[in-house]
User: Fold this.
Amino acid sequence: MELAVRPLVEYVFRGGSLEGGFRSVSTLTEGTKAHQKVQQQYGELDRKEVYLSLEIPCGKFLFVIDGRCDGLLVDGDGRITIEEIKSTAQELEAVDSESFPVHWAQAKCYAYMYAVLHDVSELDIQLTYVQIDTEEQKRFVQTMTREQLEAFVTDVIQRYAPYAEMLHRHRVKRDASIDGLAFPFPAYRQGQRKLAGAVYTSIAEEVKLFAQAPTGIGKTMSTIFPAVKAIGTGLLQRIFYLTAKTITRTAAEEAFARLQAKGLHLHAVTITAKEKICFQEQLSCRKEDCIYADGYYDRVNGAILDMLGHETLIDRGVIEAYARKHRVCPFEFSLDAAYAADAVICDYNYIFDPRVSLKRQLTEQKRHTALLVDEAHNLVDRSREMFSSALGKSAFLALQREFKVANKSLSASAKEVNAYFIRRRKQAEEKRLIEREAPDELLLLLEDFVQQAERELAGGTGGGTSESGSLLLETYFEAVHFVKIGKLYDERYVTYVDISSQEVRVRMFCLDPSHLLRDMGKGYRSHIYFSATLAPIGFYRDMLGAEADDYTLSIPSPFSREQLEVVLLPLSTRYRDRETTVEPLAAYLRTLTEERPGNYLFFFPSYVYMNTVYEHFIAEGPQADTIIQHGEMSEAEREDFLAAFEAGRSGGTLAGFAVMGGIFSEGVDLVGNRLTGVVVVGVGLPQIGLERNIIRDYFDQTGRNGYDYAYVFPGMNKVLQAGGRLIRSEQDTGLLVLVDDRYLQPHYARLLPAEWSNHAVITL
Assistant:
């Protein structure tokens, strides 16, 4: 069994409580700088980043342990010292030789490996801590014989062995179950085998696949099944199924459950957002506030062994049950379980967002992992948001005042940041400024603020113990993210400043996230991007970071033209015309529901337009029952909205009013008679605004059609998603009405799917 030193010692030596929501998030760059600072002092005989690998037997297992030790030092007499370098935001006075047993364990493993490989009877082990603010260094040294090191490492391996035994038993059973696993349906749907084959080939050839596959083809199973088969053949060890919405996570869970019913034995873990799964009424990760945080690391290994030893499909309910049983935080527990799972179902953020990604994945693990990115069209705007960051003045003014007495250094640092915002307000001639350069002055001030905030939070006087502590913690994380995004800033960003009498906000806005998606996804064996609406495919290849040799697949609809009746109503829905066309549109919708009874969804480009049409629709007391979407609907309200669409409902016709791009226009399955017709009002263009115009101008300047990239392609994707709610199976039939005169223009018409092209044009 191959095993890296770091996860080995972290598993065995972790202990204590969760850290109150605060962990020093000093960047990898800072850690690298600390290493380089120490390694620059090395002599001619000294070596850095020395790779070591050793086979260590333990019972029936042969462990192959490997890793890189930071330094191998040789003195004039040839005596060897193994050095482990760690960076810390803590003051070094607070760090003693027993502060971090896991660091000693890591260094001792490297020392033992070197002693065996080079037949050394005794050597020194040195821990060097570097304070990231001051670059001050502190060292601790132990001398150990080879026999002492062997006893230590043997004990570590034996403590890890029960976990290894569980994983080994599971993987043997998993691989055997995959070997005999058949496709879990009597036959492939039209196009489904082609998609599954393309997924497996892409994994085998270590490339990305961009697949447009129509609704109803069974995309979820078509991607999961070949990926599972790739685990069975040794190409993969892990699958990440990434989604943007909870409803598509459920589809993935159901696919794994169906495969399990056919004999699959595989650990699949679903990660639920912390705010949704937390057991506490008020979210607080301090051990003083939460029994599930107190002593978490003392209990989590036993909880993992118990759960993985008894469960395979580990959804939210399973996580919660075992978390209560072992008294561990359910969110952190799900993350720890994910590192041991064969399949992980989670949001895009856990792979692509620099703030919340699963950072303990090692390079070797990534090489045996595939990413299945569902509804991949959503990732363009989601990634823009991940790689953008904004900060406001008011938080720093509040912190300046709150810590004026308690922490003068922190207060002074917050004051400097607040003063920067004041200067921007005084210098500004307009309420909104757009700049092509990073806000370097602000970034420099924030680096000092982050250091002062880390000292305060690490000292335990902040971290959510009071209102000021909560504000400090929140502002600290926002500032860290802002600084991190500042390091990514290049010609694909702009900075804009919003100024009002009460606030000044600075935002670094990512215009083109493609290169950052490539960087965050680097190292994974294969990426499978799939959606029913990945069109035009060239746009999504461009925006999602495709390489020249990556594959593209477009599968035609498996449904017959007879299943779908398409009608085009060329009524202008442009903003300037809405007031004059709202009554004719409402009258048409009334007539439609009266003449063709059934269940309808009417999709609009905005809440305001939807509400206006709705008021006209109900003004004359239509025959249809109506329901309407509103902002911030609870999960129960969403379920009630969808539950109203009953097949053959006794209440007669139902008209549901909803917005394009909202919760009901994607990932919703109203099969059969639950949905009779869909009306899509408008071409879905995002509202004209500053950010969209900046995106338009950027792509114009880079030789692409900026209006298409900023408005047309994202808008038409919403149209395709909304219209795709109608035909979900081979038995479905229905009416699709497209309301807008722009559908008659070639530029828009060419973006419609082939099965929508055979439409009738009607006039009022």
Summary: The two ends are 72 Å apart (CA to CA). The chain has a mean pLDDT of 90. The longest helix spans residues 146-179.
